[in-house]
Amino acid sequence: RDPTTLFYHRAQFLERLQKRLAIKPASGIHVLACIRPDHFSTVQKDLGYIESEEILAQLAEHLRLRLHPRDFAGRFEGTAIMVLLERGNENDAEVWGQQLVDHIHDAEFAVGDKKISLTCTVGVCAASGVFTTLEQLVAATMESQQRGRKKGGNTVQLNESDDGDSRLRRFDAIWVKHIRSALMEDRFRLAQLPIAGLRGEANGMYDMLVRMLDEHGQSVLPSEFLPAAERNNLMKTVDRWILTASMDFSQAEDAQLVFVRLSRQSLQDSSLVNWVAQELGKRQMPASKLCIQVAERDAAKHIKNTRVIADGCRKMGVPFAITHYGVDQTRIQILDILKPSYVKIDGELMHSLIEDMELQNNVRELTEACNSRNILTIAERVENANEMAVLFQLGVHFMQGHYVHEPEVVLAEPPRVATSSLDAIVNS
Q1: pLDDT tens across 225-257, in order?
Q2: Is pLDDT of 425 > 90?
């Protein structure tokens, strides 16, 4: 290992990276991040080349404390540190990067009696099928970090290259074909993620996820095909499949409440609320057993459309939820606008929750704000008993994640796509 950072040397890191990328994560995606301190030549000038290595060692220790159990890092070149992350999606990795940037900005660095301020820039790139070689992925990640430095540093930068865009179009063309054929051939499947109560029983509550089977019957994770579906206007069809399949699952398993998320495209679908009402009526299913959920970022960006859907859900008795919810006070206003029945606390916060007292206070304030509005809270992506204990103390009502239960695929065989949806796919 590198003696300064105690991370892997470059060669060992790349070897481990190659092996890990060959194995699909159980959920979410792999994301490569490049972290480099800003203006480190100034630090070397002030402290000297030998003592400046101690600053880099301190930076590495701050980084180490923010890694998840399956993340690993290596000193790549000079002051650059590469990290392979496993996250739900690229946005989660971006949030992680921004949290690291903010943390380094506020941290104290010192050698002897010499104290310095330090910032860093983080480049982030999802390890998707867009990249056909490891070299392309590493280069795109380094380019993202360099782009952030050119903007002044102290920031996180996602990969946005023109070459990546052209590769992305070719990548999408393949996935669109697979998605359409999977819909036509009934190769979509539900996966149920149970929700557990922290303050009592929560029998029969499930977060509904989607999987796609390829032509060989192998499961394809949503992180692989949903981004392509979103970029190519297929999400309304996919969302409606998930909604009807979830309704059927609820009736077959006598589930008390199923949570189904909507994409940005469905938020802008003016016919959605009436369609949901019709599908519930066909099944004579109580509206209270279906919960429509929307990510906070999407809700804030499309607040008028989201409010129409939230109000429509309330009128027909369908609960409404906000997911991936942050905990700072500036976000409270959205609760009064959308009046959700449930708020799901962003799972990216769980890793820092045990040791971050300020974050704990923010979560406690959120639960109190929700309680005063008769909103129930659910913690996302809970991974261990320590997180569960802290959440209980903070007043959170429910939790979901791999500590509760791994997603269980429901291999239901009956067709799930309405004739109109099939026609739309064929015509397009």
Answers
A1: 888 898 898 999 999 999 999 999 999 999 999
A2: no
Q: pLDDT tens digits, residue range 340-359?
A: 999 999 988 888 898 899 99
Pairing status of strand 188-197 against strand 156-158: unpaired
**Quick check: do 10-160 and 175-427 share a fold?**
no
pTM for the predicted model, two decimal places:
0.68
The first and second tokens of residue 425, run together, are 């796919």
All structural domains of the chain with their residue ranges:
10-160, 175-427
CB under 8 Å to 76, separation ≥6 — which residues? 10, 13, 34, 82
Within 10 A of 357 (CB to CB), how many other CB atoms are there? 8
Task: Give residue for tokens 């204990």.
Answer: 389
DSSP class of residue 147?
Answer: H
Structure tokens, 298: 């999407």
Name the CATH code of domain 175-427 (choices 3.40.50.1970, 3.40.630.10, 3.20.20.450, 3.30.40.10).
3.20.20.450
Tell me if the domain spanning 10-160 has CATH number 3.40.50.150.
no
